[in-house]
Specification:
Number of helices: 10
Helix content: 40-55%
Largest sheet: 5 strands, parallel
Structural class: alpha/beta
Order of helices and strands: EHEHHHHEHEHHEHH
CATH topology: Rossmann fold
CATH class: Alpha Beta
Number of domains: 1
Number of strands: 5
Shape: globular
Oligomer: single chain
Strand order of the largest sheet: 2-3-1-4-5
C-alpha cells in the first residue's frame, strides 16, 4: 500500500527540512511548492494566484474566516469565482487527494492533514520548536536580524493558523489532537525527528 506523511509546522521549526530529509531516507517525493505548480497546470489559473494564496487568506476572507466554506468542488473557468480563494483551495485539495490515492509521498502544510483525515494510509505530523530556536534557524537561513525573524514568526504563524481554521471549519492548527505525532524539533533534533517518523510508519503499517 502507499502511504502519506503530512507535515504541519511552525515557522522556523524545521518542518520542511525534516520533510526533505525524510523524503531522501524513504525514497519518496516531498511536495510543498510543487503542489502550487501542479494546481496551476491542472486548472489553468496563473501560478502567481496560488503563490499569493499559499496558506494565506486574502482581504475579505480574514474578516470572516470562520464562515462556512462552500462544499462544492472545483469551479469551471467561466464562473466568476474561478480565481477565488475557496476555488484555489479546492483545486489544491484535489491535487492532494490525487497524490494520496496514487503514490507514497510527503506533503508540507496546505491543510493536508485535514483534507486527508478520513484516509487510513495517512500519518499526520506537527513540528514545533521554542521561539529562540525558530529565531536562530530563520536568522541563519534568511540572513536577517533576530528582531525581523521574530516578527516573521508571529505574522507567518498567524496567517497559517487563520488559513487552517477557515478551511477546517474552525479547528485550531496547533491542537495536538489533530495529529498522529507532535514533535519538538529543538529538544530532540531534526535528524531524530526523521527517525521517530520512520519508526511510527513501521508501527502503524507493520501489518500491511
Amino acid at each position: 500500500m502507499n502511504y502519506i506523511i503530512t507535515i504541519a509546522r511552525g515557522f522556523g521549526s524545521g518542518g520542511k527540512d525534516i520533510g526533505m530529509r525524510l523524503s531522501k531516507e524513504l525514497g519518496i517525493p516531498c511536495y510543498d511548492r510543487q503542489i502550487l505548480t501542479m494546481a496551476s497546470d491542472q486548472s489553468g489559473i496563473d501560478e502567481s494566484i496560488f503563490v499569493e494564496n499559499d496558506e494565506k487568506l486574502r482581504g475579505k476572507y480574514i474578516a470572516n474566516f470562520l464562515r462556512k466554506v462552500p462544499v462544492t468542488g472545483v469551479l469551471e473557468p467561466w464562473d466568476k469565482a474561478f480565481v477565488s480563494d475557496v476555488n484555489v483551495f479546492n483545486v489544491q485539495a484535489d491535487i492532494i487527494r490525487s497524490l494520496a490515492a496514487t503514490q507514497s509521498c510527503i506533503i508540507i502544510g496546505k491543510c493536508a492533514d485535514d483534507i486527508l483525515r478520513d484516509r487510513k494510509n495517512v500519518i499526520s505530523v506537527y513540528v514545533e520548536a521554542p521561539r529562540h530556536a525558530c529565531i536562530e534557524s530563520i536568522t541563519s537561513k534568511m540572513h536577517i536580524s533576530p528582531e525581523r525573524a521574530a516578527k516573521l514568526i508571529v505574522s507567518t504563524d498567524k496567517y497559517r493558523a487563520n488559513y487552517y481554521s477557515y478551511y477546517t471549519g474552525g479547528k485550531k492548527w496547533t491542537n495536538p489532537t489533530n495529529y498522529d505525532l507532535v514533535l519538538n524539533s529543538d529538544r530532540i533534533g531534526r535528524e531524530n525527528c526523521v527517525e521517530i517518523i520512520k519508526d511510527y510508519i513501521n508501527i502503524k503499517f507493520k501489518n500491511h
